[in-house]
Each structure stands twice: as C-alpha cells, then as structure tokens.
Design goal:
The protein has three domains: 2-154, no CATH class; 163-225; 234-370, Histidine kinase-like ATPase, C-terminal domain (Heat Shock Protein 90, 2-Layer Sandwich). The chain contains nine helices and seven strands, in the order H-H-H-H-H-H-E-H-E-E-H-E-E-H-E-E. It has helices at 2-8, 15-41, 49-75, 79-106, 112-191, 201-225, 238-252, 274-287, 338-348, and strands at 234-237, 257-261, 267-270, 295-303, 306-313, 352-359, 362-370. The strands form two sheets. The protein has a five-stranded mixed β-sheet, covered by helices on one side. The protein has a two-stranded antiparallel sheet with strand order 1-3. Strand 6 and strand 7 form a beta hairpin. The protein is elongated. This is histidine kinase. It is an enzyme of class 2 (transferase).
Length: 376
C-alpha cells in the first residue's frame, strides 16, 4: 500500500510540465517568426510545398504539447509521474530527430531554410508523439494503481467490519456472562443478614469475573489497534522488549527459571504492541503448566534477512484437541483471544509464528520477523 501511495503522490509537481510548455512555446514562436523573416527577405523558399507543409504541421504539434502539459498540470501528477512523461517526451523528440538527421545526410536539399525547417519539424513532431505516449503510459499505470489501492482499501474495510462484528459478539458474550455472575453474587451478598466473611468464595468469584472482563476488553482493544489506519511501525529493539517481558515474569513468579539467550541487540519494525506477543506466550507457559520447576528459554538469533525468536518451555505441552485451531479466531464460547491475538500482531509486523513442537517434554514457539531495511 505504501508503494502505491508514494507513486500516486498527494501534491502536484510542475517542473517537468513547465519545461514541456516552455519548449513548445519557443518552437511555436520560432515557427511563426521565421516565415515573417523569410517574407521580409522575399525568399522563394517561403512558397515551396515542403516549407509550407513543415510549418503547418509544426504549429499543431506545438499547440498540442502546450495543451498536453496544461492538462497534465490539472491532473496533478506526482513528481515521479511527471518525470516519466518528460522522459518519454525527450525520447520521442531525440529519436525522431536523429532518424531524420540520418535522412538529411543522404538527401540533398536546395536551401538551408528547408534543412532548418526539416529539423524543427522533426523535433516538434517527435516531442509531440513522445508526450502523447508518455501521458498514455502514465494514465495506464495510475489507473492500475488507483484500482489496486481501492481494492486494498475495500479489503481492509471488509476485514475491519468482519473483525469488529466478531469482537462485538465476543465482548457482548464475555461481558454479559461475567456481569451476570458479578450481579448475582453481589445481590446474594447484599441480601445476606450475617456479616460477610472476607474469605467468602462469592467475593473471590466477583473479583475473578471482574478481572476477566478487564482482560477481554484489553485484548479486544489491542486487536482492533492492529487494523487502525495510520498505524506507524518504527525500528524497535526486540531484545529490550523481550528483556522487559521476561523481567515481568521473574517479578511475578520468582520460582520459575526464565533464561534469555542473546548476544546482541536485534531490531524489527514494530510498535508498542510487540510486548503483548511475548507476554501472552510466557503467561500461557506459566498458567497452563503444573510442572514444579518450570524452565523457559528464550533465544534470539539473526538468520539471513530475518530475526528468529524461539520460546521453549519444559511443561506438559498443548492438548492435541487444541492444535488444529490454535491460532484461529476464537468463537463466542471461548474465553479471551489467546494465541489469535499473538498471530494477528505478529502478522501486522509481516512476521510469522509457528508451533515448532509440543508434547510431554515441552513446547516450542518460533517467531520470524523481517530485518528492517538499512536507512539510506
């Protein structure tokens, strides 16, 4: 999409158009002034068919170039488009002029003025044809890119609508269910005549459902932000992102051994959502494993033109029944967005995530992100 926007441009650039207009105007002045000069000299060349035909064909070519240049200005072509038109214009004029110069060398002319008229005619006609071809080519490219841009916009809008509808359904279901649990337990507690025991299971249930509502809403907001217009990705230190997320796990679960294996800093194009990818994976490893001494190893390496991150744990693995839909969009009956959120954020960075292995001896997730192009 960015490439299309850069080519189509948003602001007119008229330098090339000005050159074309000025050249055509000078040729027109030359073409109209020369017969006046020859008339003053009473030159017989003025009445020859060759000279008359040359003048009569040059004038429309010049007027056509002036019109074409002004038409291009109104279309507000971008710098790249105007440069391409100018290139076709120059190529047409140069090639046709060279071709006719070769003919001049092999054909004798009775007057120097016929020769000058021939050169002017070759240049004007060649430039005119080149301008027509250039404008036609640019119009074809612009039409193609415009159609592609509209297609991408329509596809993006459809994805937004589909995702918003799905998330709306999840929010309604999750929030409504949790709200009903909270309301029901709160009503019972309010109606109780005895003092409320702080260890009452109903209080814990209300607290837990409130946390679930908060988590779901935060996940939906994060997911919707991946399809926002104008979202800007910048060069991000992925190593620091992982260090921060690993430190959070260590602070919350000091009994878990989390090791980061990385020699250097690695960069990718990302934004503030990058941490959510690895926070989700690390949290799942902690919450869904009952191994007494869980170990997690995070490794970052550069392979060719990609940054590869592997997260391995020695837990109990993922149940086989969940593997087929591991990264799919959750249904309304599910809780949370899980690995679907991980997949969507990774995909928004032009990256990929795969489950390399899972079983009784642990689980391995592998992420691949493209290395940012070097700055010019």
């Amino acid at each position: 999409m960015d490439v299309i926007e850069r080519y189509l441009g948003t602001k007119p650039r008229s330098n090339a158009v000005d050159v074309i207009s000025l050249t055509a105007l000078l040729l027109l002045v030359w073409t109209t002034a020369e017969p006046v000069y020859l008339y003053a000299l009473d030159s017989p060349v003025l009445h020859t068919p060759k000279y008359i035909i040359g003048v009569l064909t040059v004038v429309p070519s010049c007027l056509g170039m002036i019109y074409g240049a002004q038409w291009s200005r109104k279309r507000e072509f971008s710098t790249e488009q105007c440069s391409k038109i100018k290139l076709y214009w120059l190529t047409g004029g140069s090639c046709f002029l060279v071709f006719n110069v070769v003919l001049m060398a092999s054909i004798s002319t009775e007057s120097i003025w016929i020769l000058v008229s021939w050169i002017r005619w070759s240049l004007a006609v060649g430039l005119g044809v080149g301008l027509v071809v250039g404008i036609a080519q640019v119009r074809v490219v612009v039409s193609t890119l415009t159609a592609e841009r509209e297609s991408l916009r329509a596809e993006h809008a459809e994805k937004q609508r589909d995702l918003i509808d799905q998330m709306n359904g999840i929010l309604r279901h999750e929030v409504l269910n949790s709200a009903q649990v909270i309301t029901g337990n709160a009503s019972v507690l309010m109606a109780a005549e005895e003092p409320i025991d702080p260890d009452d299971e109903r209080i814990e249930r209300v607290h837990r459902q409130g946390e679930e509502i908060t988590t779901v809403i935060q996940e939906v907001r994060t997911l919707l932000s991946t399809i926002e217009d104008g979202r800007e990705l910048t060069e991000t230190n992925l190593t620091n992102v992982l260090r921060n997320e690993i430190q959070k796990v260590r602070d919350q679960h000091p009994e878990i051994d989390v090791e980061l294996r990385c020699q250097d800093d690695h960069y990718i194009r990302a934004d503030e959502l990058a941490g959510r990818i690895f926070a989700n994976i690390l949290r799942n490893a902690v919450e869904h494993n009952e191994t007494p001494s869980l170990q997690i190893v995070v490794d970052i390496v550069s392979v060719d033109d990609a940054v590869v991150v592997t997260i391995e744990d020695d837990g109990q693995g993922i149940p086989e029944r969940k593997l087929a839909t591991l990264f799919d969009r959750p249904q309304v009956s599910d809780h949370g967005l899980g690995l679907y959120l991980v997949s969507e954020i990774t995909d928004s960075y032009d990256g990929s995530v795969t489950l390399s292995k899972t079983g009784e001896d642990g689980t391995v997730f592998e992420f691949r992100f493209p290395v940012p192009e070097p700055r010019p």
